Amino acid sequence: MYESFYGLTGRPFQLSPDPSYFYGSREHKRAYAYLEYGLHQGEGFIVITGEVGAGKTLLVRNLLDHLNPDQVVAAHVVSTQLDADDLLRAVAASLGLPARGVDKGSLLAELERFLQRLASENRRALLVVDEAQNLTLRAVEELRMLSNFQMGSRALLQSFLIGQPELRRILQSPGMQQFRQRVIASYHLGPLDLAETQGYIQHRLTHAGWAGDPELEEDAYKAIFAFTEGVPRRINLLCNRLLLAGFLAEQHVLGTTDVEGVAKEIREELGGSGRPDDIAEIGERVREYHTDPKRTGEAPRGWNGSSEGSDPDGQSRDRIGAGASELSARVSRLEKAVTHLLELLRRRSG
Ligand SMILES: Nc1ncnc2c1ncn2[C@@H]1O[C@H](COP(=O)(O)OP(=O)(O)O)[C@@H](O)[C@H]1O
Ligand SMILES: [Mg+2]
């Protein structure tokens, strides 16, 4: 919506991870180096953790984009509470093997044959499990079993486990010693610092055709950093809103007051800390929590970061109410934007 107003050619702060926007911050470069090291080793597990929105999925996409398919065949699985058998099926399916209606023994035999064939062609298999904090202990154990497949002394499969910080806790639990022995490296992907937050924003803008409009004042970057704590996803959400607000007010210079205005608006919509990542997520999570009976053990995180496990019903209904009022606020902002757009068009053609 604001793209043409600012002369941009792309969407600088879209949420879906697009590798062409990749910004090599110190943390992202380091995490990437771990993955490359892992690839080089050709066996065992590499574990990468990071907060929601830290850039894990983009990092992996970036790596997969750079793999030579003549050398490495990648299976990319996103775990949504997968148990051992589901995981095996998901792995087989993502390698293009038939997985439905096949019993576990045949599935394993099929997988092993496939991996051996790859090895005999001098190719390797890489399994990437994203959102791995959702794996059950049995599923992790199943992964360990898969890592036992060998041809001679050579491992047939190596795996990257990518997940939220809970993943570490799962892997540190007492039953996981054997698994831990197979982990060749692990890394926690941290947030950006202030300078990188500025670099990140400018990098994404430039990739979307930015030629300095809008101009963000020095202090605006500080305010963005303070509000988002350098988490890329939060930065995207906040900047998206900031540019929309700038467009609606026909502003070409944006400062601290503008950032704080947007941040305040976000806070008022939801109350609490109103961190940008929570805004997109909370409605979704609460709905999932209440419709999925398996999730009763784990309460969703509220916008103020607290767990609502002690009174899920009462509080969550309030959250759904908050989701609805957020939606209506969004609709009215959108209405305002459309009216504004029509007005601009009318003025230009008249
Ligand atoms: N290094 C980076 N360069 C450019 N964009 C990034 C970077 N890290 C994260 N992002 C962006 O931030 C958002 C969240 O990243 P994502 O990979 O989905 O996070 P995670 O998987 O850790 O939750 C996405 O829009 C992604 O494109
Ligand atoms: Mg992700």
Q: Could you name the key traits of this structure?
A:
350 residues; alpha/beta; 2 domains; five-stranded parallel sheet; 53% helix; elongated; binds adenosine-5'-diphosphate; binds magnesium ion
Number of strands: 9
Using only C-alpha atoms, the radius of gyration works out to 23 Å
**CATH architecture tag of the largest domain:** 3-Layer(aba) Sandwich
CATH superfamily of the largest domain: P-loop containing nucleotide triphosphate hydrolases
Characterize the overall form. Answer: elongated
Describe the structure.
The chain is of the alpha/beta class. About 11% of the residues have low confidence. It folds into two domains: 164 residues, 3-Layer(aba) Sandwich (Rossmann fold); 156 residues, no CATH class. It has 13 helices and nine strands. Helix 3 runs parallel beside helix 4, helix 9 runs parallel beside helix 11 and helix 10 crosses helix 11. The strands form three sheets. A five-stranded parallel β-sheet has the order 2-3-6-1-7, sandwiched between helices. A two-stranded antiparallel ribbon has the order 4-5. A two-stranded parallel ribbon has the order 8-9. It binds adenosine-5'-diphosphate and magnesium ion. The site of adenosine-5'-diphosphate (ADP) has 19 residues, from helix 2 and helix 10.
